[in-house]
């Protein structure tokens, strides 16, 4: 029986993926790294420190450390989220359904905790989430399931009794590896790809979510 709903954040709750793309392009390009917007799209859902480390190892640069570059990118994303407050369609609807179904609600994100806290405050969503977990300091980020397993453990609920809501394929793999029921809301540009078939349910928007989809 489903007892908890665990949400991803970037791309599902907040439309921050374009901000991550813009910030990576601006910061890394200034350091001489060769990358395209498609490169930033292809790494959606992966921790920013892993992305930065990859470019440092493959292309390198002089000056700031990988940690400093991560902070520069994160600062830019936080600034843009605070200004634009880009909540995704159907978020409140989904949270209200979870509450009405007496589901515990948590968040499991690859993003640093600083961004999670800033985003939830900017969107006035802080009170909805009983637990918030970041993969920032874990040995492995998504697609490793640890951040989802930690979220379930903090609620005292078995992963098999949790439903995970995701937008990225990387996150979907993490939730599946955690043995959770999965609902995916992929970006429209990639929604027709065959790989989403591994999810239990695919939606075009959180507005399509129903109690039956959540709890069956």
From TrEMBL:
UniProt xrefs under InterPro entries: Beta-PGM-like (IPR051600), HAD-like_sf (IPR036412), HAD-SF_hydro_IA (IPR006439), HAD_2 (IPR041492), HAD_sf (IPR023214), PGP-like_dom2 (IPR023198)
Pfam families hit by this protein: HAD_2 (PF13419)
Record keywords, A-Z: Carbohydrate metabolism, Hydrolase, Magnesium, Metal-binding
Cofactor dependency: Mg(2+)
GO molecular function: hydrolase activity; magnesium ion binding
Highest taxon in the source lineage: Bacteria
Family per record: Belongs to the HAD-like hydrolase superfamily. CbbY/CbbZ/Gph/YieH family.
Alphabetical list of NCBIfam families matching this protein: HAD-SF-IA-v3, PRK10826.1
Name listed for the protein in its UniProt record: 2-deoxyglucose-6-phosphatase
The species this protein was found in: Enterovibrio norvegicus FF-454
Lineage: Bacteria, Pseudomonadati, Pseudomonadota, Gammaproteobacteria, Vibrionales
């Amino acid at each position: 029986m489903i007892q908890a709903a665990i949400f991803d954040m970037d791309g599902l709750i907040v439309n921050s993926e374009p901000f991550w793309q813009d910030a990576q392009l601006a910061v890394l390009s200034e350091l001489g790294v060769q990358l395209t917007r498609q490169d930033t799209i292809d790494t959606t859902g992966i921790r920013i420190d892993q992305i930065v480390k990859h470019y440092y190892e493959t292309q390198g640069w002089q000056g700031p450390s990988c940690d400093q570059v991560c902070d520069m990118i994160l600062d830019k994303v936080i600034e843009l989220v605070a200004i634009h407050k880009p909540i995704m369609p159907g978020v409140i609807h989904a949270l209200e359904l979870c509450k009405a179904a007496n589901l515990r609600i948590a968040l499991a994100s690859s993003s640093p905790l600083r961004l999670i806290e800033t985003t939830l405050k900017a969107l006035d969503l802080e009170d909805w989430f009983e637990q918030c977990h970041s993969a920032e300091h874990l040995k492995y980020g998504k697609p490793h399931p640890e951040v989802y397993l930690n979220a379930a453990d903090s609620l005292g609920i078995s992963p098999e009794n949790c439903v995970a809501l995701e937008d990225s394929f990387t996150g979907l793999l993490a939730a599946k590896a955690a043995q959770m029921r999965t609902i995916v809301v992929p970006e429209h540009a990639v929604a027709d790809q065959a790989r989403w078939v591994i999810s239990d349910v695919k939606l075009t928007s959180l507005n399509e979510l129903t109690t039956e989809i959540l709890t069956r």
